[in-house]
User: Fold this.
Amino acid sequence: MPNEQTFQVETKHQNRHERIKPIKIFIILLNLTLLSVGQVGGPLLVRLYYLHGGSRRWLSSWLLTAGFPILMIPITIGPCMIKSARPTWLLVQPRLIAASAALGIGLGLCSYLYSFGMSYLPVSVSALLSSTQLPFTAVFAYFMVKQRFTEYSVNAVVMMSLGCVILGFHVDGERPAGESDGKYFLGFFMTVCGAALHGLLMPAVEFVRLKGGVVMTFEVLMQLQFLILMFATMFCSVPMIINGDFQAIPKEAEEFELGKSKYYMILVLAALGLQFMAIGSLGLIFCSSSLFGGIVTALLVPVQQAFAVIFLPESFSPEKGMALAMCLWGFASYFYGEYKLSHKKLDATQEPEKEVVV
Assistant:
């Protein structure tokens, strides 16, 4: 009964595809939400910390990943919900632990470079400069993970990069009053270096996912994220101990312009927001690609600037509105290209199965 057996094979494949696809879409949407909330809210709170008397750069860097223990919740509960089993600890192989350590150190350094730039630059300018990670991500992804570009993804990279360049036309009017040229351009340089390192780390994470040598189950992905963020926190903790930043927190809280209670509230909320950003960014790369993560990050730049206008003393110029439109255009182009590509892949996988005879 070849026809009946062929029909059973096709039905089994379709059922499996229909069961897995909604789960993957849900995870991607969850990571998108975490990244959006974190990238918009986290930097605003960090800038608020600097504007009202905060000066500890390693502390603000440390906040990016210090909330990593929150991942213990999905690591512990996730396996029980998915397969009604106890969680298996340390599924990650030694070489993946070493890779996680290297990525964590890179993430910690990237966080410090961004934090240093944010201490001298307004959110609108630092967001503009950090968005230059997109072309860096595209170049490194091409060489490291052999990222295939379509006319839609190329259009997305070009349009979103141009949108960020347009924002640069309004940079001169955003310089903080009384800040020296040296400090301003040092912050400018450090932020661009952070963007370049960020553009390298995103394809590096995808490379580890592709070449890890293990099946990337939910448990493995969560444990990898936990290790990367843990090593980044450890990296930032060492200079904090050397500089006495932990001991200086109570004194800085007493001298904070908005008051002691708001000082701690800002730090806690910033840590939570930045942790969402880190988890969402890593999650998007693990579930999709580094290029997609870079495009979403660039898309959120004008959104971040709009919120900076609302909550911080910054203005919204026509250039920012045009940049927002171009970023939305680029994102729509990428999304449409991926939609067409997924349908082509689905058709290609179904065609051979129609000829299967057992």
